Amino acid sequence: MAEPRLAVRRKSRSSSERKRSRAPVQPIAASSPVARKRPSSGGSGAPAEASCSNDSEEDMFGDYDSFYGNDSLMAQVEDIEHKHLQDRNMDVKAAGEIVPMNLQLGVQQKEQDNFSASENVFVLQSDKEGACQVRDSDQELTESILDDLPSSQVLYFEKMNELSSASRMSPVSKGRDERLNSTSDKVRDPLSFCAGAEQRNRPTDSSSSSKCVLFKTESLKDHLKSAMTGNARAQTMQVSKSKQLKEAVLSEEIFVARKAIESSSVDIGPFYGLPSKVKDLFRQLRGIETLYEWQHDCLMLESLQQRKNLIYSLPTSGGKTLVAEIIILQELLCRQKDVLMILPYVAIVQEKVRGLSSFGIELGFLVEEYAGSKGRFPPIKRRVKKSLYIATIEKGHSLVNSLIETERIDDLGLVVVDELHMLGEGSRGAVLEMTLAKILYTSKKTQIIGMSATLNNVGDLQKFLQAEYYTNNFRPVELKEYIKIGDTIYAVDSKTENGFAFSRLLNFKYSSNLEKADPDHIIALVTEVIPKYSCLIFCPTKKNCENVASMVCKYLKKEFRAHREKEKQDLLKNLKSIGNETLCPVLKQTIPFGIAYHHSGLTNDERKSIEEAYSSGVLCLLACTATLAAGVNLPARRVILRAPYVGNDFLKKNQYKQMIGRAGRAGIDSAGESILIVQEKDKHLVRDLVHSPLENCYSNLLLELTKGMHSLLL
Question: What confidence tens digit (pLDDT) does each residue in 477-504 have?
């Protein structure tokens, strides 16, 4: 009796395979897929009109139940379902006939108990195998149907299956499971099965009973239709497209930011962790092709990789600022933190703002100036772009105070201090010390970088800033130091007894009038250099700058006016337009000769125009104050110190080093010269100045009756 059942299984498998590989149904004109005639489930073959009902729900699909064209997916589903039920009913009939036969054989032939038992086992095993194969064919049919569905519907069915299996099993499926379990128990226990058969001794249609009770399942067609109905009725929120776009951009930015924070490596490019675009910008805007060896070594320090505080010291013009700028860009672009850069003077702040604004535009960060009347407290908190605050010492202190008050000090990832030796200079040094002390105390995540060309007691500064130290004696251009006493020039030489070695006499003949006007022979020293090369004259006061510029141009030859005359006229027009059609009479007199003065009395626009003209070679001589020595990038072939004084105070060693450090332009000059003009009465002071070590930096908080400490506490 097992052979018919096996044949039925083969038929079911071949049927499913045919259904999977069959060609699409040919279109039928003027006929609804639902109204198509199909064989009845009873197997009689009589045609019956199929009607579709969606229970109590309104039919939202009308006469169409197909996802594509006229080939009805619903019709395929219903055909497969009917044939599948017929196959399963035939399996049940076969199982019902085999079991009584085995029981009867067991009563008549007791001597064949072992053989009968083995046959029973074989039948039960074949039943189980048949059930497994029926399930496999069922799964194959379902998968073949789902292949034709859109991905959204497939995901929906997977979700529905998970929910139904986990927590919401339908009563029909529960009843079905109970009946299947009871049937399998009765098959295992033939006596109880026979007893139940005797009590219910009335004929039943096995086909109809199995369809209504044992295999009552929710129609897959109804399942599909209810799912599509739910999708069609689902209401979408009315949200503007612009708002959706903004939310998408915001979520993407948050994801990128979190990924950057969680990432162990902050490298985003090949140029010291920066994009190669940064290297291209340095080449285009600064003309820097490669870094010096010491710059590479400094950037690769282990202390910088571990974000430790760092102090580094090199001679002036050694390239310290470039290293600081690369570290700043790493903080802004890689770690996505704000940066504060503290510079000593307003002019240097303005120059640095102009120099880094182009980088900000190209790389997507903001450059904010905090000098003079400019700057906002607290700074604007921005969501996307990070800010580089470039500030004077006093403005930097106010900025740090505002960030601490608003609990935003952790947003400050890096603080860079140029001219760190300013810590030891009076009340301004006290303000700088207060700023650094507050940062060290309130934020453990903020890194501090300090740089200077004139540091002596580095150990004390290291202890204060909890920093590492790097130093090098590299200088790109050789510097030659000279002292002028009378009409004789001496070379600074520490090996000689006096500290000076005779160099030469001035080869310039002075008239009596010129000797009275220029007793220090400035004109003779200047004309040896200009107009072919550039020259700086450092003067003690602002008024002295203007007087020296006027005096020099008064005694220059007329040939100097012809040098780049057109550019000089354009500069005069530009300065006149800046001053509302008014121009300083001194500049009006000196600029035609290529000479100007540079001090804090100039407006920002005037200073910018003069600096650009000097850098381009239109102006060849600047008479300036010590402000220019502190970092404005205006080097010269020769630097002349008009007197060893700054105001009324005698020159300090670090101030002297800063001034003579302007001599020598990397890539332009083979050597730089500095000449200090000295009177006989100051000769011994100058000897000590030239050969003495640099001054130590000491705290200024306790000076002036603890005035600085009171300010700190307040």
Answer: 888 999 998 888 888 876 666 677 777 7
DSSP for residue 310? E
Q: Provide CB contacts within 8 A for 24, sequence distance 6+.
A: 71
Enumerate residues 6+ apart whose C-beta is below 8 A from 267: 273, 334
Fold: same for 276-471 and 479-680: yes
Mean pLDDT value of segment 374-385? 91
In terms of Cβ atoms closer than 10 Å to its own Cβ (0-12, 13-18, 19+), residue 105 is: middle
CA atoms within 13 A on the CB side of 189: 11
| pLDDT at residue 186 is higher than 70 | no
User: In CATH, what number does 276-471 get?
Assistant: 3.40.50.300
DSSP states along 373-396:
T---SSPPP-SSS-EEEEE-HHHH
402-431 burial by CB neighbour count: b if 16+ within 10 A, else e? bbbeeeebebbbbbbbbbbbbbbbeebbbb
Q: What is the pLDDT of residue 2?
A: 43
CA distance 318 to 334: 26
- Backbone φ and ψ for 497, nearest 5 degrees, come out as -65, -45
Q: Which CATH architecture has domain 479-680?
A: 3-Layer(aba) Sandwich (3.40)
pLDDT of 291-304, one tens digit each? 999 999 999 999 99
- Please calculate the CA angle 197-199-203 and round it to the nearest 5 degrees: 60
281 contacts 421 by C-beta, under 8 angstroms: no
Residue at token pair 């000098």 = 371
pLDDT band at 51 (very low <50, low <70, confident <90, very high): very low
- Asked if residues 443 and 450 have their Cβ atoms less than 8 Å apart, the reply is no
pLDDT digits 0-9 by tens, 79-130: 777 777 777 667 655 555 554 444 444 444 444 444 444 444 443 344 444 4
Q: Are 331 and 273 in contact (CB under 8 A)?
A: no
> Per residue in 18-41, pLDDT tens?
444 444 444 443 444 434 444 444
Q: Is 334 left (phi over 0), alpha (psi -120 to 50) or beta?
A: alpha
**CA-closest candidate to residue 415, choices 314, 487, 331:** 331
Cis peptide before 39 (omega within 30 of 0): no
Query: Is 413 or 629 the better-scoring residue by pLDDT?
Result: 413
521: closest CA among 481, 567, 569, 555?
555
Residues in Cβ contact with 337 at an 8 Å cutoff, skipping those fewer than 6 apart: 331, 386, 411, 412, 413, 414
Q: Residue 543: which pLDDT band, with cuts at 50, 70 and 90?
A: very high
Q: Where are the domains of the chain?
A: 276-471, 479-680
